[in-house]
Design brief:
- By secondary structure, this protein is of the alpha+beta class.
- The protein contains 8 helices and 13 strands.
Length: 248
C-alpha cells in the first residue's frame, strides 16, 4: 500500500518471517492507514505468536483503530492521557470481543501489539502497546520516539488483550512543530534497523526517508517489499512490518 496524500507520503509493507514460512503459519503482522478531513492515522499490529487467530486480531485492531482515531481526533487530543487510555481500551476491546464471539474463541487468541500515530496539520497523537519501535524524523535526523516494551526480555511483551491494558499502553501527544516524518516498525524489522542497546536507528532508515519526495509511492513500496523480503527478514525469524510517513 502507498500513496501521496496532500503533502504527506505514506508507504507500508509487511512480510512473513522465516519461521512462520517454515511452519506455514502465515504473516501475523498487519499495517493500515486512513485519512479524512485533513486528519491521518497509521497503525501497525504484530499478532501474538502463540495463536493462529492473532493475525485476525492484528488486522481488526490496525484497520479499525485508524478509523476510530481519525473520526475522534479532536476529542481525543483534548483529553488527558489517562482518559485517552480509557476510551481507546473500550474501543479496542469492544471490537475484539465481538470478533471473539463471532469466531467462538477466547479473546486472548486475538492478541497483538499496537503502534499507532495520528496527526493533523498541527498536532499528533501516538499509541504504543508492546514491542516494536516508533521513530521521528527531525531536522533530517531519525530519532527514537517510543521504545520497545519487552518487560526487559526480548520476545516477551504486552498485548491489546492484556488485563493491564491501561498500564501498558503508552500515550503521547503534542505539536508537530519540526517533525518531518514518522516510522513504525515491528520487533522483527527492528532486529535489522534498530540498535536496542545504543537506542539508535541504522543508517538504512535515513536512506529510506530520503526516497520520499524523490520517488512515487509505488516505487518506494516496491523497494520496501524487496528489502523486507530479501534482506531485513534474514536478520530474524520473525515477521517483519514497517510504515513510513514523510511530509513532502
Amino acid at each position: 500500500m502507498g500513496r501521496v496524500i496532500k503533502g504527506w507520503q505514506i508507504v507500508a509493507s509487511y512480510v512473513e518471517g522465516r519461521l512462520h514460512e517454515q511452519r506455514r503459519i502465515g504473516c501475523q503482522d498487519r499495517v493500515s492507514y486512513y485519512r479524512k478531513d485533513g486528519k491521518y492515522c497509521v497503525a501497525l499490529a504484530d499478532g501474538a505468536g502463540f495463536s493462529d487467530y492473532s493475525q485476525k486480531g492484528a488486522q481488526i485492531v490496525a484497520k479499525n483503530i485508524c478509523r476510530y482515531i481519525v473520526r475522534n481526533f479532536d476529542k481525543l487530543v483534548s483529553k488527558k492521557e489517562e482518559n485517552i487510555k480509557e476510551v481507546v481500551k473500550e474501543a479496542i476491546l469492544r471490537l475484539l470481543s465481538a470478533t471473539a464471539k463471532a469466531e467462538g474463541i477466547e479473546i486472548r487468541l486475538l492478541a497483538s501489539t499496537l503502534l499507532c500515530v495520528a496527526f493533523n496539520k498541527n498536532e499528533f497523537l501516538s499509541l504504543h502497546m508492546g514491542d516494536g519501535v516508533i521513530g521521528v524524523l527531525r531536522k533530517e535526523e531519525v530519532l527514537p520516539f517510543s521504545l520497545p516494551d519487552n518487560d526487559e526480555f526480548v520476545n516477551v511483551t504486552c498485548f491489546t488483550t492484556s488485563s493491564n491494558f491501561e498500564r501498558n499502553l503508552r500515550v503521547s501527544k503534542g505539536k508537530l512543530d519540526d517533525i518531518q516524518g514518522f516510522i513504525l516498525m515491528s520487533d522483527g524489522t527492528a532486529e535489522a534497523l534498530y540498535h536496542r542497546k545504543k537506542q539508535e536507528f541504522a543508517l538504512a532508515v535515513k536512506k529510506i526517508f530520503n526516497w520520499f519526495g524523490r520517488y512515487d509511492c509505488k516505487m518506494i513500496k516496491k523497494a520496501l517489499d524487496i528489502n523486507l523480503g530479501k534482506m531485513i527478514r534474514n536478520f530474524t525469524y520473525d515477521d517483519c512490518s514497517i510504515i513510513v510517513v514523510k511530509r513532502i
